[in-house]
Amino acid sequence: MKLLFSVLTTLLCFSTFIPIAVNAQSTMFSENFEGFNTWQISGPSTPNTWIVNTCAGNGIAQPGTFAAYISSGGVIAGCGPTGTEHYGYVDAASGSQAVVLYKTVNNTCFSSLEVTADIMIDGVAAQDFLEVVYSTDNGASWIAVSAQIFGVSAWQTLNYTLPGALDNTSFWLGFRFTYDNATVTGFPAAIDNVVLEGITADVTNPTAVCPASFNIYANASCEAIVPDLPPSVTKSDNCTAVMDLIVTQSPAIGSTLTADAMATVTVTDQAGNFTTCNTNFVFLDTIQPIIVCPADQTVPANASCLYTLPDFLPSASATDNCTASGSLIYDQLPVVGTDLVLGVHTIDLSARDDAGNTGTCSFLLTVVDSTPPTVNCPVYYTVPANALCIAHVGDLTAAATVSDNCTTVSALFSFSQVPAAIQTFSDTMQATIYVTDAAGNIGSCILNLVAADTVAPVVTCLSDTTVFTTNPCNYFIPNLAAAYDATDGCTPSNDLTFSQSPLQGSASSGLTVVTTTITDAFGNSSVCYTNVHPVDVSAPAITCPANQNVNNGINCNFVLPDYTGLALVTDNCPNYTLVQSPAPATVVSSGDNTVTLTVTDAGGNETTCSFQVAVYESVMPSIVCPGNIQSCDVVVSYLQPDGTDNCLYQIVQTDNSGLTSGDTFPEGITTQSYEIVDSSGNIATCSFTVEVLEIPDPAVIEIDTIELCNQFTSPVSADPISNGTGVWSVIQGTGTFGNPSSNSTTVNGLAIGTNKLMWSVSSPSCGTKRDTLVVIVWPLPSVANVQDTLLACSVVGLFVNGNVPQFGTGTWTNNSGIIFDDENAPVTLVSNLNGGNHALIWTISSGTCPNNSDTMILVSPNMADANFPDTTLCIADFPFTLNGSTPAAEQDPIWSVMSGEAEFSNNYASQTNLLSASVGTVSILYWLNHPICGYTKDTVTLVVMDCDELITNIPTLFTPNADGKNDVFEIPNLGVNYPGCVVTIYNRWGGLIFEAEGYQLPWDGTYKGEEVPMGTYFYHIELNDEEAKEVEGSISIIR
User: Fold this and answer.
1) Which of 23, 259, 398, 651 has its CA 20 to 30 A from that of 104?
2) Which among 1008, 1021, 941 is positioned nearest to 975, based on CA atoms?
3) Series of mean pLDDT values for 10-residue runs along the chain (1039 residues)
4) 621 φ, ψ (degrees, to nearest 5)
5) What whole-number distance in Å separates Cα of residue 639 and Cα of residue 659?
6) What homologous superfamily does CATH list for 207-284?
7) H helix or E strand, kind and range, residue 949
């Protein structure tokens, strides 16, 4: 068999282009496989294929460690010329098979082509050999440039001239490895340091456009890493393809900057012509300072129940990546000196660096009330005794005066006292009052209680008394004191004293109130009031004077005289009263005034009469209307007419127009008339006109915005008008109107972007009304352009490139859940990659214009997954199917064995049958190998048992004689295959002499540390498997 070796890892490589002189043999490209490369593979990828990886020797006298070589898979990378090769190839399935490593050569300016390469191959002529080939039909056919190359056991540099038919044309250049099914030992093809040269007459410099500026961001050390600018440079050349242009930059990628800097990008074509462009690196610090606050604190409130906030900044510490701590600007909220109320407060501290970044921290400050309330009591406090002369202590709360720094609402205080309110006493007692504020602080005071009788006698008062007399104007007060019933809790009834006022026998007339006072021994008194009513049923008679007429001249006010002397009154008692209303000396106005006289006798009987006092004056009132009014507003308001008179007056509107100030007036002239009438009936009038002028109709454009796609003419329309003159104008952008005076017209010559148009309606007297319309003209979006296919070897992420739109906004979308770092950036990082093909769509949109899209197919290899758990199997379980994860395009599946032995039905199919495996632990590897991205793998560990042999392979004797041979009763793999088994051994009489679970330590022929005699013993084994098998037999000991 041919040697089978494997590759540990695969890395992407790159091409290096070397400037050349005009009309000399010049290098088109050179390839050392140390970085990204554009080589591809044509032909079957199994069982052998080209890979790029570490390679011993790495060509001849060239730096680096990588080369391209043939491998049939495996886990160890590398290649070498003697005995230590870690690359190899296996037989073809049948006949001959070939695989080509090729590169596309875009040759537009070179002739007389030569290819040079370092080559190593230990093959056999006509069986296993290497050729330099080319194709002009995209790999449909290959033409050999070289003879068969084989038997090169050490690196050699070989040179070949390409045919003239390839001058100034594009073609594929490749290395074809051919092998067959014959068994040959050796190592396959390896190549490195490939150089393609030709003659060119290109003297035209390439073109390059750099971005004007590029933001770079400071890290934790205040340094910014210089980014890779070339992907952002737009470049082209007359001969060299864009992908083959050499792009370098200064400062170098990955170097650091601490300030703004100018970067220079140099673009060189294959002929050595070059050009440069510049980008300004803008150094930005966006990292916030780190500030550490002091710990949470609890502080007491002051006498005003406040806490004055001090400066906590000295207690904080702050650092920043770019600004020294001493140069940071610090701030505190709330500010120092702020008075804080009780409760928990968040104190925010901040530090701002020179770049304006602010870092914050906060801590909790709890303000608490720890001051007890101040309580004041009187020295002595009188407590009233009850009817039995016993005093209850009662609620003493009212006796205390309380003040506190924080608790200001009396309802929030909590009171208690000693002794309790229900306790009684009859003389004096000391008491203490305790007051608790809202925070739980307690204050107190002491007072002396004094019991005192303050209960007045209980008296049953008499009802009112009626005195019947033939002369109600003269009668005597009766004796009422002796008729009262009174009791007292502390003073006997016979010790109570009574008094009456007026005294018995006093002369009186009319209604009289008699007051009776009952007083106990402690001076407490009760009072009763009794009304003594003399009966008088005769009402007085009164006659008023005649109506009075007063000519008051020019005076408006008149002072009423006393008319009571003109009235005639008669009654049976002389002590009546006569009252005038309005009272004498009352000032009345001109006009009719009613005067009423009322007479009331001593018995409360009354009679009234009234008459008129007519007051006249002769001064005419005056009224002044506002001037005539002209208005452009139909709602007209004006000042009310101004009236004057020496007396009272009233102004009323008399024009019957139905309109007044604040109403909506019709267009034209309306007359307003008013009249003033004073209290004597004197009248004056005035009038004025209200003229509503012609008002322009409102300027109304029904739509606010029109959006156009690459069109510069649009119809515009406003509502028709009846009053006023309309005109269109441009207030932003450009445009000309077909008929600027028509409400519906066409605007031409619009500018790209926002154009603001105005429709104005004017009248000669009432100004202009306006409305605006915005017309947005969107340019057609730029054509979207992305590469057709992109290979993603990393599942972490990679950059994708779309063209920078000149017009419109670009957006990345996908159908696979891929995440874009910035979906609107032409160059952005994508992540969350899964195996398979993914369509990435770059869409450029511009307002209402149709979007323009281009699609990139992102190819991501699948991860290897054996889809089979680690498990334990019996030999009888074979064969069974293994279903590895499906390979993606250009991925090859491989099944191999890492430890133990196993046989597969097909080592190179994702679905295969595991036909057999050796007893014990077998480790199986499943690989998915990609020619560019390398491999991923998954491991399955199997424990294989011969389940049937266990029962039949139990020994029948052992010799425990300490010679190291057959010293114990060993049952192969029993404890491994059946870890839950139980083994018991008995002597011939049925006595148990050994028992073990799992049987990790076999029986050594002893019982309780003593050797048992030679003879036959009997074992019983419970396997405790799914079938609950049990095994019995005998074992003999020979010593």
Assistant:
1) 23
2) 1021
3) 27 32 68 80 82 69 72 61 48 79 88 92 84 94 93 87 91 92 72 90 90 90 89 88 86 91 92 93 92 94 92 93 92 94 94 93 93 92 82 88 86 88 86 91 91 83 68 74 76 82 81 85 84 75 90 87 90 83 91 91 84 88 93 92 90 93 92 91 92 90 95 96 93 95 96 96 91 95 91 78 92 91 92 86 95 91 87 82 88 88 91 90 89 85 73 80 89 82 90 91 92 89 85 85
4) -75, 165
5) 14
6) Immunoglobulins (2.60.40.10)
7) helix 947-952
Type of residue at 879: P
Output the pTM of the full model: 0.35
Residues paired with 283 in a beta bridge: 216
Task: Tell how far CA 487 is from the center of its chain.
Answer: 83
With contact defined as beta carbons under 8 Å apart, do 737 and 750 qualify?
Answer: no
Q: Are 858 and 933 in contact (CB under 8 A)?
A: no
Residue 946: what are its φ and ψ, rounded to 5°?
A: -95, 85
Domain ranges, ordered by start, for the chain:
15-199, 207-284, 290-368, 374-453, 458-466+488-532, 541-616, 622-692, 705-778, 789-860, 871-945, 947-1037
Amino acid (one-letter) located at 22: V
Question: Taking the domain 789-860, which CATH number applies?
Answer: 2.60.40.10
The dotted CATH code for 374-453 is 2.60.40
Residue whose C-alpha is closest to residue 692's, from 638, 769, 764, 633: 633
Q: Which CATH superfamily is domain 290-368 in?
A: Immunoglobulins (2.60.40.10)
Among 977, 958, 993, 991, which Cα is nearest to 1031's?
A: 977
Residues with Cβ within 8 Å of residue 61, at least 6 apart in sequence:
none
Determine the topology of domain 705-778 in CATH. Answer: Immunoglobulin-like (2.60.40)
